[in-house]
């Protein structure tokens, strides 16, 4: 029997280059798959919660009536503000504007009325304003039919 023995000499440098290029090729294929794979719609996540529009609620402070305006789109609370806060009312109730801004920032971040921290300076004013915001948002909620 004649056996022809062949000796193959592999250089370690060539093996390392081949392994690195193979790894880069696999990473490129995975990256392309993630980039061009169709994404699922976020329809389940951002379903319509509100009827888009601007809703108001009133607060009575002594003989003064303030309107809280809440702007909603289909799934977000966009803006919260006083609509008729003039200089005389702002002078009589100096904590009203900072309190609504403090509450509004928290609501914008969480898009929820739960776990709202009240201002230490005016916890009662915070509660009254939060109740008015809640009333305005209730007016804009979708009705389940």
For this entry, give a set of tags:
145 residues; alpha+beta; Sufe protein. Chain: A; 2 domains; 3-stranded antiparallel beta sheet; 44% helix
In the CATH hierarchy, the architecture of the largest domain is Alpha-Beta Complex
The CA-CA distance between the termini, in Å, is 89 Å
Q: What share of residues is helical?
A: 40-55%
Strand order in the largest sheet: 1-2-3
The CATH class label of the largest domain is Alpha Beta
Largest sheet: 3 strands, antiparallel
**Structurally, how many domains make up the residues?**
2
Helical segment count:
4
Give the SSE string.
Answer: HEEEHHH
How many β-strand stretches? 3
- Class of secondary structure makeup: alpha+beta
Description:
The chain has 145 residues and is α+β, with helices and mostly antiparallel strands. It folds into two domains: 9-39; 53-140, Sufe protein. Chain: A (Alpha-Beta Complex), CATH 3.90.1010. It is 44% helix and 17% strand. It contains four helices and three strands. It has helices at 12-36, 87-92, 96-110, 123-140; strands at residues 53-61, 64-72, 77-82. A three-stranded antiparallel sheet has the order 1-2-3, with helices on one face. Strand 1 and strand 2 (64-72) form a beta hairpin. Helix 3 (96-110) packs across helix 4. The radius of gyration is 31 Å and the shape is rod-shaped.
């Amino acid at each position: 029997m004649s056996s022809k023995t062949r000796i193959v000499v592999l250089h370690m440098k060539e093996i390392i280059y081949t392994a690195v290029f193979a790894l880069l090729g696999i990473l490129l294929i995975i990256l392309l798959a993630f980039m061009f794979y169709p994404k699922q719609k976020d329809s389940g996540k951002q379903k319509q919660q509100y009827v888009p529009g601007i809703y108001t609620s009133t607060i009575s402070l002594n003989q003064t009536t303030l309107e809280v305006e809440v702007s909603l789109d289909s799934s977000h609370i966009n803006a919260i503000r006083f609509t008729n806060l003039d200089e005389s009312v702002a002078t009589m109730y100096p904590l009203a504007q900072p309190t609504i801004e403090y509450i509004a920032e928290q609501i914008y971040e969480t898009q929820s009325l739960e776990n709202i921290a009240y201002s230490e300076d005016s916890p009662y004013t915070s509660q009254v304003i939060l109740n008015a915001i809640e009333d305005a948002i209730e007016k804009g909620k979708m009705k389940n039919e």
